[in-house]
Design brief:
four-stranded antiparallel β-sheet; 6 helices; 11 strands; 22% strand
């Protein structure tokens, strides 16, 4: 009895068929939300996800002003990447007979990557400009700040009002390459005097509950009464008896003030110890 062989597929039946790889689609959309969807032939959906990712990064700049919203912004973007990757992975599994179309071009893939990379770069530069991070390297602001604290700060605009008790990041008056962080105690036009660590403004002592307790046997550097110019501020360290501040180098000009600290992003001691209990603490 002759054997019956199965019919051969007609020539061209599988021509152009390129099944989508689920792992590749998922990875593409995790790294660049929407790219996996474009790879799967769902160009419109992919571009919508890409636009959402770009908008999220751009709007996330303002979220850096508050620690909790900054974390929400980062967490939300991570979830968006995960959701886009999972959607692309599942979709690729349903496309065993996929034939690439006009949207499946290297030019479009590259354009998606370039767009997101450009937005990410510009957003990073904007965040660095308006919400820079500074590293505390001295003990002059203990107990408020500690060595190894990395501070998220908000850049000061020329019209921003600076108040007494506010922390400021500024350039050292005689060497603008050096960056210090201190507390404002004297405002423009006021007469400021420091005696035994206590600050007197216009002859009256001001209440300060933030500077360190005076160690036994230590001596504070005093300053005789002096009137500040219209654009000058008097700054002191909270660790009043172990700090290099306006008592040594004089008042700080408003033009030298760069930013005001907001919160601690993370903190690492000189020994390399990660201080998780300081993450998110407000810098006040």
């Amino acid at each position: 009895m002759p054997l019956s062989l199965p019919p051969r597929p007609a020539p061209g039946d599988h021509a152009g068929v390129k099944p989508r790889k689920p792992w590749q689609a998922g990875l593409l959309s995790f790294l660049v939300p929407g790219l996996g969807q474009v790879y799967n032939g769902r160009t419109r959906k992919g571009l919508v996800l890409l636009g959402l990712a770009c908008a999220w990064q751009a709007l996330g700049i303002g979220a850096a002003e508050a620690f909790r919203w900054w974390l929400v912004s980062l967490g939300g973007y991570f979830l968006l990447c995960c959701a886009a990757g999972l959607d692309a992975l599942r979709m690729a599994r349903t496309l065993p007979h996929f034939r690439p179309g006009r949207g499946n071009s290297l030019i479009l893939y590259t354009a998606c990557v370039v767009v997101l990379a450009t937005v990410s770069l510009l957003s990073g530069l904007a965040e660095e400009r308006y919400f820079p991070i500074y590293n505390v390297t001295q003990t002059s602001m203990r107990p408020t700040l500690r060595t190894g604290d990395h501070l998220r700060a908000q850049a000061l605009a020329p019209r921003d009002i600076i108040r007494r008790g506010q922390l400021v990041v500024f350039e050292y008056p005689s060497d603008h390459a050096l960056i210090f962080v201190k507390r404002v105690v004297g405002l423009p036009g006021e007469v400021v005097e420091v005696e035994d660590g206590l600050v007197y403004v216009n002859g009256d002592p001001i209440e300060e509950g933030y500077y360190a307790v005076r160690p036994r046997g230590s001596k504070s550097l005093d300053m005789p009464a002096a009137r500040l110019a219209p654009d000058e501020y008097y700054v002191l360290g909270d660790n009043r008896y172990a700090t290099f501040d306006s008592r040594s180098y004089g008042p700080v000009n408003r033009a030298r003030m760069l930013a005001t600290p907001l919160y601690i992003v993370y903190s690492v001691s000189d020994e390399g110890e990660w201080r998780s209990d300081r993450i998110g603490l407000p810098a006040r």
